[in-house]
Each structure stands twice: as structure tokens, then as C-alpha cells.
Specification:
heterodimer; A: mainly alpha; two-stranded antiparallel ribbon; 19 helices; 10 strands; about 35% helix; about 5% strand; B: mainly beta; Neuraminidase; 4-stranded antiparallel sheet; 24 strands; about 5% helix
Chain lengths: ~450, ~300
């Protein structure tokens, strides 16, 4: 018994010694002398001494653990970093990328931490490169410039973006919001205050979506409403669309889908319904709200977004092609080194997201909801085709490839672009021409 | 060396059939195209078509606002008589039931009309007894082997099932998280299929089920903008890729089996196709809208 106790005691002593040695070895993997840590590096990196006087110093720098991030001898990564620059921070700051996130900051995902932080020291808290909103608006320029111009500013935005947003990721909401939007708003705005209730016409808006009317960053309208407000909202006549505020379902609309909007926009609806072809989302369950905001929007016509993103929401296949074509155009221009390249690869209105240049977003008599039944007339609105081509076209010129259709612009071109110059349908002009002029085919 | 070559040859022989037939078990071979009616008037942007086992082919000649009736027998098309009625100005979907009655969806009025086999107007399919909400907007419809009418009601986000007399039988709500359903189909087993043109997905509801679930993941890598779905008598699924001008073929379990046809003007090529129909004999009819013609293919399995 005594013998086994002795063995146990000795084993424990040996194990403890080994653990301590291992930890020490790990901490001092370069076997530096006790007072050499950090100081040794500063012998050469003299400019760094000044940096260390900054009020906020990254902990490993402060404790002289330069080798936590850098290998003093050699490394496979730039700046003698132990790991790839996009991953090294996560060695210690793994919690910045939780697994159950609903939204995340792209720079964090990309491991581009140095976009915001100085890895050594800074004059700002959290070793940030700049203080407060100044840092955020460096990238989010649109928001930054809007904030300087708007008349009514949201107080928390002025105080700091991090009042509402988590700069790294959010496990609770989209847009890096610290909490679900309504929960975030009501944490400051007491919804049971008489003034609040009156402003919102007794409707239980805390069960709704505040950003349906309000621009959380501020706007030129009182109550920081979005700049374009639906008339019934501006007039505070909520009952025009919703059931009465004292009904059991006050937020429910009086009618479903387009039938609700038809009450006021009857003329537009009748026009659309009298056309041969309708844009089907107009008559689905969501109806007009597929594209329009019901309350207020920063876009004209109360659109949900700019037409490129709005149309691209459903027609992503078309938009993806445009991205590829734009990349190809940029590549070919770079290769041309300043030489003029004739002919476009894609159609400018499509690239710009100006879909309405050719299509009617509600309804039309023609396929693809084109504004004109005649393709020639549609193209003619922008292109004087007779000046660029003497090729016969029109109702009397039969397409030799298909006996019952006639020649028009799209007999040779594709309206959204093809990746070939002049947006022709085939890789070469010759290949295209001999489709009809077969006698010249070789 | 010779031994090695022999082994290589044997391996090649072993895998040859798999590589040839494994990826694309179904191939389309062009037989014929239809450009004109019996009077020599050209088709204009046809979007709908339906074939009947009794060699009947009904074409929705959408751009001309009429239906055309053809006979297709022994790889030859005859006829092309016109059915033009004021109640149908924009036929975008066409079906024929077992009695030979023609049902067509008018894209302008968004109503389904019923015609006698001779083409006389018999009335509207009004979904008698449909529960609230009573409003329904048919984006498409199909007739099952049981002669029931299946309506894709985009307004109330459901599939309505009507009996052959247009009386309401049941409804199945659209699944959660869909983009936009452009078409539906019913296979030989009675399984309902929905095609989502925004998410490029197919959803299914087995016969008797009251809910749809995804049959496929997003098929975006194989197709651009699917607007029509149909099945053959073996349950193989054919999805018409309108913007990609091709046909994507799926197994009953939603597995990708291949893609056929491509964009162009020449016969055998498609330009924004709208609808496809396939007979038990393996003849596939495609409304090649952009080329203003109907193309007929033999489906080789």
C-alpha cells in the first residue's frame, strides 16, 4: 500500500514537471532569454518603439510576444507571419466568427481584419484604425455621404454605427444588427407612450417592421420616413388598406394581392389587364408588393430597390450573364492596351439595369413584355439602324432560315448581349452571314 | 505491354456503355417542324400545345390568337385547321382530355375555357365550390390521367384539383420559401410536380399528399429559367428551359439525367421554347415560340 502511494506520488511529480516543461517550451519556443522577449525585436525594429506608446496596444505586442504572430527565422507567409494573413487573427479571436450567424461582415469573413484594426497598436479603442463612424464610412461611402446631407438624423447613428450594428457578425439578425429590427427599435422607443401610439394611429406597429416606413439612418422627411411615402401613409389613413386599429387583426389588409391596390390604382391595373401578357408576379399572392414597398421607400415609385437588383431578384440568370459579360469586356479592354475596340459585348441598358428601356414591368401585348410589338421599332427608339446596315429588314423580308418569320434586328443580334462583338448571335460575322447566304459557305 | 493494353481495352469495354448512356439516357432526334396552318398562314409565337393519343395535336398559336388542329400519324403532320373564338385571344396553355375536349388557358383574361372536340365554346372552368379565397388566377393547368383538372393558382398560392366537371375536389398549398411557380405537371402515378422558375427547383407532392416538398435542389447549373414541366409514361421529367433554350431531363427522384437541344434557328434547335408535350409513343412536341414553329422529335431512350 505504501509502495503504491509512493509510485502514485512520484508519477504525479513527474507528470507535473513534464506539463510545466511543455508549457514553458510552448511559450518560449525560440528559447529566448528571460528578458529578451519583444525587446530583442525592438533592437532592430526601432520605429516600433514609438508605436508602442499608443494608448491601445494589442496584448501580444504589449507582453512582447511578437512570436505569437511572427516567426523570427522564416515563414511561408508575408511579413514572416506564422499563418496566412487572412487566418492568423482567428487563432486567438475565433469567437468573431460564430457558427450560427445570420449575417456577417464581409471583411471578417475574408479575414481582412487589418481593414479596421491595427494589429500592433492604435490611438483608438480596440486598436481600430479610425475612431467612431469615420472608420465605417471609409467603405460605406454612400451611407457616409447621405448622413452629411440629410435633414433629420437618427441620433444613435450620429453617436456610432455600433449602437445598432455588430461590426463582426450577428447571430440574431440580418445587416449585422445586434437584435431583431423591431426589438432593437423598441429598446429605445417605448411603444406604449401616448405620443408614439398617436403617431402610429393606434396600430400595434411593434408587431410590424419599422423599416417599412422609417429610414433607420435618417432622411429628409420628419419622423425619418423614407423620402418617398405612399399617399395613404402620408395622410395617415391606414384604414385605406388595413383593417381598423381596434379590430382583432388590425395589420391585416382589407383585400389580398393586387385586389387591394386596384382600389386606388384602378386605371393602371385596367391598362395592364387589357394587355395580352401580364407580368405574372403582379397577380400572385404578393402582387404589387413583389416590386413595390407599401409604405415608404428611398426609391422612386416606391420600388423595393434599384431596377438592377429588383429585376435580378427573379431574373438572376440574366443578371449573372451581364456580370460575366462586363468581366469579359474589362479583360478584352485591358488586353487591347488603349486600342479602340469596336462593337459592344452587351447592351448598355441591360448593363445599367435600365430594363424599362425595352420592357414594360406590368404588362404588354408583346412577348417578353416588350414595349413595342415590332422589334425594329423598339430598337429604332435608340438606334438609327438604317445608318449602320443596308441589310433588308421588315415585314416583307422573309428570314431564309425560318419560312414564316421576317428579318428584324434580333435575326442577327441578341438584345442582352452574347459575348461576341456587336452582340451577334454567333462567334464570327462570317458564320452568322452564311446561315442565310449559304452559297458563300466554305 | 500487350497485357497492359488488353486490360485497358477490357476496362474501356466495361465502361463504354456507361459513359455513353449513363449521362444522357434520353436523346431527342428531330423529325419535322410545323410552320403553317392548312391555309398557308404562318404560325406566330406559339406557346401552347397538347397531343392526344388519337394522333391529335392542338397548337396554341398565341401570336395569332387562335388554336390549330393537326393530325400526326406515322411521322407525318396533316391538317392545321383553325379554331378561332372571341373568348380565347391569347392561348398560352392547351390540354386535351380523354374525351377529346380541348381546354385552353387564355393569358389575357387568365381564364381556362373548355371547347368541344370540334372547337365549339362550351364554357369556362370556374372551379365550382372552391373554398375561400374564391379568387384564383391560373398561371397554368394540366389534365391528369384521371381527367381531373389541376390548376396552378398563383393568386392564392395553391394547386386546385377539380373533377372533370370542373367541381372543386381539393387544394394543396404552395410550399414555404418558393420563388415563383411557372408550371405544374402530374405524372402517371398521380404525383404532382411544380417548377419554380426563380429558384430553378422542382417540388413534388405524391398522390394523396397535402403538401409539396423539394424534389430537387436548385438546378441553376443545368438550366436558366424553367417555365414548363411535363412527364412521360415512365415518369421521366422534362423541364423546358425557356431562357436557356433547352430541355433538362430528370429522373422520377429528381436526379439530373441530362440536357438536350440548344439555342438556334435551324431545325432541331430552339429559341425561347414555351411548352413541351410527349406521347406514349415517345414523340415530343415543342412549342418553339421564338422561332414561331412547332418542332417534333422522337425521344430515343
Amino acid at each position: 500500500m505504501k509502495r503504491s502511494a509512493k509510485i502514485l506520488f512520484l508519477s504525479m511529480v513527474v507528470s507535473s514537471f513534464m506539463i510545466v516543461s511543455l508549457v514553458y517550451a510552448q511559450q518560449n519556443k525560440f528559447k529566448l532569454k528571460p528578458d529578451a522577449k519583444g525587446k530583442l525585436c525592438l533592437n532592430c525594429h526601432e520605429n516600433f518603439k514609438e508605436k508602442l506608446n499608443d494608448p491601445f496596444v494589442h496584448t501580444p505586442v504589449k507582453t512582447g510576444e511578437c512570436s505569437e504572430c511572427h516567426n523570427p527565422h522564416s515563414a511561408s507567409h508575408g511579413k514572416l507571419l506564422e499563418e496566412d494573413a487572412s487566418r492568423i487573427c482567428f487563432k486567438c479571436h475565433e469567437e468573431m466568427m460564430p457558427k450560427d450567424q445570420k449575417s456577417n461582415h464581409r471583411v471578417v469573413v475574408e479575414g481582412n481584419c487589418v481593414k479596421c484594426h491595427d494589429p500592433h497598436a492604435s490611438k483608438n479603442k480596440f486598436v481600430l484604425l479610425k475612431a467612431g463612424n469615420e472608420l465605417c464610412v471609409d467603405c460605406h461611402k454612400n451611407i457616409g455621404s447621405a448622413l452629411t446631407k440629410i435633414k433629420f438624423k437618427h441620433n444613435p447613428v450620429e453617436k456610432g454605427c455600433t449602437n445598432c450594428h455588430d461590426p463582426h457578425s450577428s447571430s440574431k439578425a440580418l445587416h449585422l444588427l445586434k437584435n431583431d429590427l423591431v426589438a432593437l427599435c423598441v429598446s429605445c422607443h417605448e411603444t406604449n407612450r401616448p405620443a408614439f401610439v398617436k403617431q402610429h394611429m393606434n396600430y400595434p406597429v411593434e408587431k410590424s417592421n419599422c423599416s417599412s416606413c422609417h429610414n433607420a439612418h435618417g432622411s429628409d422627411r420628419g419622423g425619418i420616413l423614407f423620402d418617398n411615402v405612399h399617399q395613404p401613409v402620408a395622410n395617415k389613413v391606414c384604414t385605406q388598406c388595413h383593417e381598423a386599429s381596434n379590430s382583432p387583426t388590425p395589420l391585416k389588409t382589407r383585400r389580398a394581392g393586387y385586389e387591394l391596390c386596384r382600389g386606388c390604382h384602378g386605371s393602371m391595373m385596367n391598362d395592364a389587364f387589357n394587355k395580352n401578357r401580364i407580368h405574372w408576379p403582379l397577380v400572385d399572392k404578393t402582387g404589387c408588393l413583389n416590386c413595390h414597398e407599401p409604405h415608404a421607400s428611398k426609391e422612386k415609385k416606391l420600388l423595393l430597390g434599384d431596377s438592377k437588383s429588383l429585376c435580378g431578384k427573379c431574373h438572376s440568370d440574366t443578371m449573372e450573364v451581364q456580370v460575366k459579360l462586363a468581366e469579359k469586356e474589362a479583360q478584352e479592354k485591358a488586353t487591347a492596351k488603349g486600342k479602340v475596340i469596336k462593337g459592344a459585348l452587351s447592351h448598355l441598358p441591360v448593363q445599367e439595369g435600365n430594363c424599362e428601356a425595352c420592357h414594360d414591368s406590368h404588362a404588354a401585348d408583346s412577348v417578353f413584355l416588350l414595349k413595342q410589338p415590332s422589334m425594329i421599332k423598339l430598337c429604332e427608339a435608340c438606334h438609327d439602324w438604317s445608318k449602320h446596315s443596308s441589310h433588308p429588314m421588315g415585314e416583307k423580308v422573309v428570314d431564309p432560315r425560318i419560312k414564316n418569320i421576317t428579318m428584324q434586328c434580333l435575326s442577327c443580334h441578341r438584345s442582352h448581349g452574347t459575348g461576341y462583338r456587336y452582340m451577334i448571335a454567333l462567334p464570327t460575322v462570317t458564320g452568322l452571314c452564311v446561315q442565310c447566304h449559304k452559297q458563300f459557305k466554305r | 505491354m500487350i497485357e497492359g493494353l488488353r486490360i485497358l481495352f477490357l476496362i474501356g469495354l466495361l465502361f463504354f456503355p456507361i459513359s455513353v448512356f449513363g449521362a444522357e439516357p434520353v436523346k431527342f432526334r428531330h423529325i419535322q417542324s410545323i410552320y403553317f396552318d392548312e391555309k398557308g398562314i404562318g404560325l406566330k409565337e406559339p406557346e401552347g400545345l397538347a397531343c392526344h393519343e388519337k394522333n391529335l395535336l392542338i397548337v396554341g398559336d398565341t401570336g395569332n390568337g387562335r388554336l390549330l388542329r393537326y393530325n400526326f400519324q406515322e411521322k407525318s403532320v396533316k391538317g392545321g385547321s383553325e379554331i378561332k373564338i372571341p373568348q380565347l385571344s391569347n392561348p398560352i396553355r392547351v390540354q386535351v382530355d380523354s374525351k377529346g375536349e380541348i381546354l385552353a388557358l387564355d393569358g389575357k383574361k387568365r381564364r381556362i375555357i373548355r371547347l368541344s372536340p370540334e372547337g365549339a365554346f362550351k364554357g369556362y372552368v370556374d372551379a365550382e365550390g372552391v373554398p375561400s379565397p374564391s379568387t384564383f388566377v391560373p398561371r397554368s393547368f394540366k389534365i391528369g390521367t384521371d381527367n381531373n383538372i389541376y390548376i396552378l393558382d398563383v393568386f392564392s398560392a395553391r394547386v386546385l384539383v377539380l373533377n372533370p366537371e370542373s367541381k372543386y375536389q381539393k387544394q394543396i398549398p404552395f410550399p414555404q420559401g418558393y420563388g415563383f411557380f411557372s408550371d405544374l405537371s402530374v405524372d402517371v402515378k398521380g404525383t404532382l410536380l411544380l417548377v419554380d422558375c426563380v429558384k430553378a427547383m422542382v417540388f413534388s407532392a405524391p398522390k394523396g399528399s397535402d403538401r409539396f416538398s423539394p424534389l430537387t435542389k436548385s438546378l441553376r447549373e443545368y438550366l436558366n429559367f424553367p417555365t414548363n414541366i411535363t412527364t412521360d409514361n415512365r415518369g421521366i421529367i422534362y423541364v423546358v428551359d425557356e431562357n436557356g433554350s433547352g430541355i433538362v431531363i430528370l429522373g422520377q427522384d429528381g436526379s439530373y439525367l441530362g440536357r438536350q437541344l440548344s439555342m438556334g434557328w435551324n431545325e432541331g434547335l430552339l429559341y425561347y421554347p414555351a411548352q413541351m408535350s410527349i406521347t406514349d409513343r415517345g414523340e415530343a412536341f415543342i412549342a418553339d415560340r421564338g422561332n414561331s414553329r412547332i418542332q417534333i422529335f422522337t425521344v430515343i431512350r
